[in-house]
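Researcher: Re-running this chain for the archive, since the previous output was lost when a drive failed. Same request as before.
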Amino acid sequence: MALEGRVALVTGAASGMGRLSARRLAEAGAMVAAVDVAEEPLAELARSHERVRAHPCDVSDTAAVAKLVAEVEEGLGEIHRVMSAAAIAPSGLLAEQDPEEILRMMRINYGGVVNVTHAVLPRMLGRGRGELVNFGSLAGWLPSPYLGAYNATKFAVNSFSEVLWHENRGRGVKILCVCPPIVETPMLRQMKDGAREMVEAAPRIQPEEVLDAIEAGLDEGRPFVFPGRGTTAAWRIRRWLPGLIWRRLHSTTGI
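Model: Regenerated structure tokens:
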């Protein structure tokens, strides 16, 4: 990870994968623009490391994101790497979940990726260099009861990232979508009812495994990376034998 003296922008930096990403990048020598709506945890992160700067911002606000990126590049220098990790994961059966909650999740999880991409990628392409990392999920390939709304947001991120990679290949910018399984982060506490039971019964991986896989994926120039043992196999089974996956989910959840 050759980031000494470079600038990185990390969304969702107040907690979970975003926070760990910001700290690791700063420790690798990058100047990090840490972005989140949670101002106090974000400020605490900035106080904890001299190379982290707090930038409160709602990634679902297109104009605010564009302004933020311009300010970061003017104040810190050209953004070399973006880590789009901002996400929420409230759960529930789709017919019972508040439609506004479902749409808010789409605005943050998917809309945030779109807004950050449109603010940063043209700058990177103009320079012919940069790294754009979008946090998709295995949940974007493998839908399940109680997580349908979250699944939809990650399906969108995965698809958006795949097309983006193909549209811009050979132009000097590395684009990567990371698709981990369940990761041990505070986001799991947002899940309730059947989703919580399902998640608690499933194996999970540590955040460090995800970050290590990102570095390997960027080095290899791949469009996707699937961290964790068995993750790629689960992705393949879903593609080839979707009925098998659903029979297991029906059996597990009783739905």
